[in-house]
Amino acid sequence: MRRKVTKAIFPVAGLGTRFLPATKSIPKEIMTLVDRPLIQYAIDEARAAGIKEFIFVTSRGKGALEDYFDINPTLEASLRRSGKDDLLEILKNTNMESGAIAYIRQHKALGLGHAVWCARRLIANEPFAVILPDDVIAAETPVLQQMVEAYEDTGGAMVAAMEVPKDKASAYGVLDVAEDMGALVRVKGMVEKPKPGEAPSNLAVIGRYILTPKVLQNISKVRTGAGGEIQLTDAIAEEIVEGRDVFGYRFRGQRFDCGSKAGFLQATVAFALARDDLRDEFIDYIEELLALRKAAQ
Ligand code: UTP
């Protein structure tokens, strides 16, 4: 019987420079799509996939994240007094059981691989998931759940994969495909941020992973890679060199790159349009804007 994936690492120690000046004092993961912080989407997805232990790799200035998952007795008492049960219900999702959440510091932003490695003692000898909260994926079945289900058959290491235009591939880790089985692909190599024209395929790695403790050991061995950072993809690619299975999983869902301003705005619009309480008013506003734009042309 394969061991269940019950632990997830959330690397949130990056500097978030693309959102300066906001990220000077606000962690990127606390920024909201409509009214829910990015991190809430990531936690909900993890919970749906059966994750019980949530490990955050943080850095200086991320205190707001710890507070977000704490109870707020004053606020709750005030809402209770004024009979705002609907808001109390919404807050429930932000609370974590004592002992279910752990925070580890990455003292220097040495890269995603290094951030994951910082959590190695909490992972011990189990498979684990990694979720990058700035990749937000709208999906009928939450993407990590799709992957955990696929992993039950495959074992090995698995990364979420998405087709990207060839000319965009150098922004991603890219899969070198050995065997294409539809939703699953067997991978024979991975290149982090390939030079233009050198991407081995148009299948890019997106921020969801299921990994084995062996990958953590590989991270100690890999040197700094693309961008001078210790790359997670290099440590996963090492698995292939050592003859172990690595799979890409073509997930069903729409991914938004909320680490970039354009992606964040697109997600904001898409999530607002998906809300019954906002849709109509928002569509009216957009139509008005478009009409004004047309009239001005
Ligand atoms: P990004 O490449 O988006 O970097 O990291 P960033 O620092 O968050 O943002 P920019 O590029 O400066 O705007 C992808 C994920 O990896 C985490 C980030 O927090 C984010 O979730 N990360 C990255 C770390 O935890 N530590 C690192 O050293 C690097």
Topology:
Elements: E1 7-11, E2 32-33, E3 36-37, H1 38-48, E4 53-58, H2 63-68, H3 73-81, H4 85-92, E5 101-105, H5 112-117, H6 120-123, E6 128-131, E7 135-138, H7 143-154, E8 157-163, E9 173-180, E10 184-192, E11 203-211, H8 213-221, H9 232-241, E12 246-250, E13 254-257, H10 261-273, H11 279-296
Parallel strand pairs: 1-4, 1-6, 4-5, 8-12
Antiparallel strand pairs: 2-3, 6-11, 7-13, 8-11, 9-10, 10-12
Uridine 5'-triphosphate is lined by residues 11-18, 28, 57, 106, 109-112, 114-115, 132-134, 259.
Explain this structure.
Helix 8 crosses helix 9. A hairpin with a 2-residue loop joins strand 2 and strand 3. The protein has one domain: Spore Coat Polysaccharide Biosynthesis Protein SpsA, Chain A, CATH 3.90.550. The protein is built from eleven helices and 13 strands. The chain is an alpha/beta fold and 297 residues long. The strands form three sheets. A nine-stranded mixed β-sheet has the order 5-4-1-6-11-8-12-10-9, with helices on both faces. Uridine 5'-triphosphate binds next to helix 5.
Give short descriptive properties of this protein.
297 residues, alpha/beta, Spore Coat Polysaccharide Biosynthesis Protein SpsA, Chain A, 9-stranded mixed sheet, two-stranded antiparallel sheet, 11 helices, 13 strands, 36% helix, 24% strand, binds uridine 5'-triphosphate
Identify the bound ligands: uridine 5'-triphosphate
Arithmetic mean pLDDT: 93
What is the structural class? alpha/beta
The level 1 CATH classification is Alpha Beta
Report the principal-axis shape.
globular
C-alpha-based Rg, rounded: 20 Å
